[in-house]
Amino acid sequence: DGAANVSALMIKFATQKHFHKCGRKLNWMTTDSFAAQHQLNADAWSCLQQLPAGILVAVMAKFQSSNAQDPSGLFIKYATQKHSWLRGAELQWQRPGQDAFESSGKRPFSIFQ
Q1: Are the CB atoms for 28 and 18 separated by under 8 Å?
Q2: In the predicted structure, residue 7 carries a pLDDT above the cut 80
Q3: What is the pTM of this model?
Q4: How far is CA 42 from CA 10, 50, 102, 103, in A?
């Protein structure tokens, strides 16, 4: 299980480097704990998983759901807007169990219509 040890060493190394450079501890948060903290539903979790790494970091750093009646809807709106703003393109994400044609609203051409 050397891969797990290498990952742990890399995390330890990065944490120490961050502390020496910034003078404060680096706080790690997994996407699982982020989703639990904000009470995200399956749609929002799917959106979270499909964010590119750079956008994911930005979204996780700034998103606030306190007192939101619909934290999942708020998250999806925030994440897609952040993606559009940073990438200049709409986030193409799919809800769980949805295929690419359902998310685009388009259907493949068929001669059997």
Answers
A1: no
A2: no
A3: 0.66
A4: 31, 12, 17, 15
